[in-house]
């Protein structure tokens, strides 16, 4: 026994299969679902075809007349600019023309011309306005006048009677809608041609209506062209008058600007520009001269200010004639003094020479000072000339700027005057063209092929209705089949169960009839040992005994999600099969609330049951019931020994119950615990700790998938050793004919093995 809740080889604690896997779409699933719902799809297709036949039988033969119209789109832009006036059809796409052809105004003109209102009144109703809903409307078969005559309906109240004009207006609108309903317009590809068709039950009426529509359109275009041209001429005349006044005002502004400019400047701008150019050149020359004089002055003044400087080394001083003469005299005196070096310094000759030399040198400095003063005077004169020229340039620039501003204003006035003259002349020319075009107006469209009276009714409409109705019926049937399949949240195939739960299906137990008692099911197992039920139970036993690499389980718990899934019957069948194969087995009814196995227990109030064994007042041998026909041993709670003070969960969780299961596992080869559903009570989760393997029963095509997944989650939360799923009450006939996957034993040739 797995008394300590350790993970078992049968189960895992990993993730279950995903919902997407359980409901995944595959070609096999699509084909199988379609095959199972073939009768629904066939019935829906037949219903659609019958409805289509009913509609077709009520349809009146119709005729279609067709005309073709070419749209030339001649451009008559009388003003040359788009803002003046455009013909209604210029530059428009064919879709715009289609809107005009189906407009209420144009169709209203056709209604008035052909007196369609009177035509419809004479016929009572338009044949083209037939609707399928009329078949379900009682007024289609019984008129209101008839009902009023026999007193079922009273006369209409006075407020319901419309005024004559309002009634006529409504009739006219109904006639327009009738024309619009029968009218079809389509552009011819790669052309400016529109095909106009009208369908009616009267061939001649269809042709007349199409031709009337084309005539009304062309006449409307001519009227619109004439009106547009007239309005354009009037508009151009008003515009030309305004432009004439504008030209006159602009020319007056030009003349006034010219007079003002001449009075303010006194000379032309060209002369001012020449003067400014010459003055700027003179200013540049003076600035260059001033720079040269300044350089010479700075050189001589610096040299003169330095007493140690040899003035003869300065070029300006050296080149001065007076200084050159004085320097020559100085040189001569120096030579004479050098010749007398043999004499003492106080020699009279030498003293006289030195005195003369000092006078010469003083004369040189005086002359240098005069040169410096002359350069300073020259520099000042040049600066004054430069300032005068700068002032003259500024004056000329001021005059030039004033002249330029005046000329800018003058040129602006001249441009405005020129633009006004050009626009005025253009509008004059356009007015003449517009007046000439009044005699050349033509429509923007012409009829290429007028409508002829059709000779044969349209047959494609009935075929289309039949095909469409049949296809819609088939589509509805397919939709119903797949919708029902998607809405079905139950399990109907072994693969479905395994993909969704992640657990193997140990066996698929077939249903052998509706409303059978457990005793009858057991009898069926004995009567047909080679039947599908017996073989399915043996498969269940084989899967449990050899499905694990560990030792074969001895304590097996049966549980399910909800009641009524065949859990108790499956546990009985497993125990009986083990008994038949020579293995001792006992089944313990742990469902102490409903006591599902009570029908197989003898009703003896004095005989002890499961509670007596747990309380120690009776032995197992005294409490066990042995079925006389099968030899199956059953240990159950008897009705008379139910203890209201203890809950079933407490009993299963008690140490005494665990000791009892441990004792039974030592005595018997197989101990089967039939527990309540997982989602109902906690008994199964508690008993899971005592089990070597747990079989989870799922009823075929009945148990909701969410319930199964939730029940497995509950067991997984206590690390229950879930061996797998037992799919119960499988409808063998349904499986064999409905292409469910994973039911090999129910299909031939495998089915030949069973009796």
From TrEMBL:
Membrane disposition: Multi-pass membrane protein
Transmembrane segments: 39-59, 465-484
Cellular component terms per the entry's GO annotation: plasma membrane
Stored InterPro entries: AAA_dom, Bact_polysacc_biosynth/exp, GNVR, LPS_length_determ_N, P-loop_NTPase, Wzc-like_C
Presence of the UniProt keyword Protein biosynthesis in the record: no
A GO term for molecular function: protein tyrosine kinase activity
Protein localization: Cell inner membrane
Enzyme Commission (EC) number: 2.7.10.2
Keyword Nucleotide-binding: yes
Span of domain Tyrosine-protein kinase G-rich: 412-483
The AAA domain, residue ranges: 554-700
Domain Polysaccharide chain length determinant N-terminal per the UniProt entry, residue ranges: 25-113
Pfam families: AAA_31 (PF13614), GNVR (PF13807), Wzz (PF02706)
UniProt feature coiled coil, ranges: 240-267, 372-399
Gene3D superfamilies: P-loop containing nucleotide triphosphate hydrolases
Keyword terms, alphabetized: ATP-binding, Cell inner membrane, Cell membrane, Coiled coil, Kinase, Membrane, Nucleotide-binding, Transferase, Transmembrane, Transmembrane helix, Tyrosine-protein kinase
Assigned protein family: Belongs to the CpsD/CapB family. Belongs to the etk/wzc family.
Name the record gives this protein: non-specific protein-tyrosine kinase
Species this protein is from: Acuticoccus sediminis
